[in-house]
Amino acid sequence: MAQSVKGMRDLFGPVMGAFQRIEDTARTHFAKHGYQEIRTPILEYVEVFKRAVGDSSDIVNKEMYDFKDKGGRDVVMRPENTAAVVRAMIEHKLLASSDPQLLYYIGPMFRYERMQAGRYRQFWQIGAESFGVASPESEAESLLMLFDFLRALGLKELKLSLNSVGTPETRPAFYAAFRAFFDARESQFCGDCHRRIAENPLRVLDCKVPTCQAALEGHPVITDFLDEASRAHHDRLKALLIDLGIPFEENPRLVRGLDYYTRTAFEVLSSDLGAQSALLGGGRYDGLVKMLGGPDTAAFGWAIGLDRLAMVLEAVKGNQEGPKPALLIPLGDKASAAALKLAQTWWGQGCAIQLETRGGALKKALQTANRQGFTRALILGDGELESGTIMAKDLTAGSQEAWPIAEVPARLKA
Ligand code: HAM
Q: Model-level pTM?
């Protein structure tokens, strides 16, 4: 039997229903904040992510779906979308004016990761990016949009885990202190951390090995090394979040798995996700546009794991498919032709109707309707056609009554 590729899943039924509800809510909310959708290709040149996400990151090191295309070009199925959106903004000169640009995206990403619950090799992200504004206010606005969106979906108990990772200028002083701390207890750290300390010391803080986490006890804290402007930025953001009622806690070990962050970095974890507890992550990335060849542009954004959000919603209230349309069942050739024309009119009037087109016996059609969870059937036979009515059956209550055909749209909507 043919099977889907490992780590890639088909979406249907209740999970698809949750995806649709999440996506619809996202579009409505983000539009209210002035964000516009952008869709970039799934394939990008490898260089885009190597430079942006960083050679020392797991994403670039171990997880990229990269290959040569038939023209010998090195391409990759995008592992994330921030770098790709930046590439698009530069390519289309959308940042030339330095006006603020607010964008969101919904789409699949690909990472060759080890399989676990809530971790897939094709997964979906909803992300929002803002360009051209460096202020803590722009971050607060974006986080407010994020939290209003999550609250609209019914999630209440979420807390932001917040850090500032400083700027490339201030980081060397932190690295020096951190390396000295590491060297004093290097035998307690794993082999990967020995590689990390040379390539990017921040990654050591991110190590999941319990003995490494224990060895980090009392490590130098990056927020103690911020310059005055970064410190003021961080304090201002925290004050704004308190004012807006967005709960957060400071986490000096939060560094994120991507290299492009400057100053603000954050994640939201959910206890409903088990080991894969990160529901979303993001931060400021003021250097990325320039690094990829664009104008010096401040930027901030985040991305939510849609698969994980659907899992959390399942835990909160159970996912459901969208409401079923009414099932229109014609009996006989004459009624079948009439039903098509009636449905055409009713669809045009915004009614939700699914047409039974198999022909055959009413009993079979009703059995299918019950099995598939329809709650309303509209039965049209020759007798009904003559009297200008339709038999409306309430499949939950088991009752039925004749409706004048002209009243069907209004009655369905009621
Ligand atoms: P990220 O933390 O790598 O950040 O991914 C964001 C979210 O995507 C994660 O919190 C998680 O929910 C979901 N995710 C990541 N990998 C998987 C996976 N294998 N299976 C299921 N879900 C997954 C970024 O991608 C940045 N581009 C976020 C950002 C936007 N920063 C600034 N702007």
A: 0.90
Q: Which two tokens stand for residue 147?
A: 């939290």
Residue nearest to ligand 1 atom 31, measured at CA: 282
What SS3 string covers the chain?
A: CCCCCCCCCCCCHHHHHHHHHHHHHHHHHHHHCCCEECCCCCEEEHHHHHHHHCCCCHHHHHCCEEEECCCCCEEEECCCCHHHHHHHHHHCCCCCCCCCEEEEEEEEEECCCCCECCECCEEEEEEEEEECCCCHHHHHHHHHHHHHHHHHCCCCCCEEEEEECCCCCCHHHHHHHHHHHHHHCHHHCCHHHHHHHHHCCHHHHCCCCHHHHHHCCCCCCHHHHCCHHHHHHHHHHHHHHHHHCCCEEECCCCCCCCCCCCCEEEEEECHHHCCCCEEEEEEECCCHHHHCCCCCCCEEEEEEEHHHHHHHHHHHHCCCCCCCCEEEEECCHHHHHHHHHHHHHHHHCCCCEEECCCCCCHHHHHHHHHHCCCCEEEEECHHHHHHCEEEEEECCCCEEEEEEHHHHHHHHHC
For residue 305 and ligand 1, the question of a CB distance below 6 A is answered with: yes
Residues 6 or more apart whose CB falls under 8 angstroms from that of 58 comprise 257
Pocket test for ligand 1, best of 122, 258, 286, 304 (most atoms within 8 A of CB): 258
State which residues of the chain have pLDDT below 50: none
Q: Residue 303: CB within 6 Å of ligand 1?
A: yes
> According to the model, what pLDDT value does residue 395 have?
96
pLDDT single digits (tens) 306-332:
999 999 998 777 766 677 899 999 999
Q: What distance separates the 2 farthest-apart alpha carbons in the chain?
A: 93
Cα–Cα dist 297/311, whole Å: 36
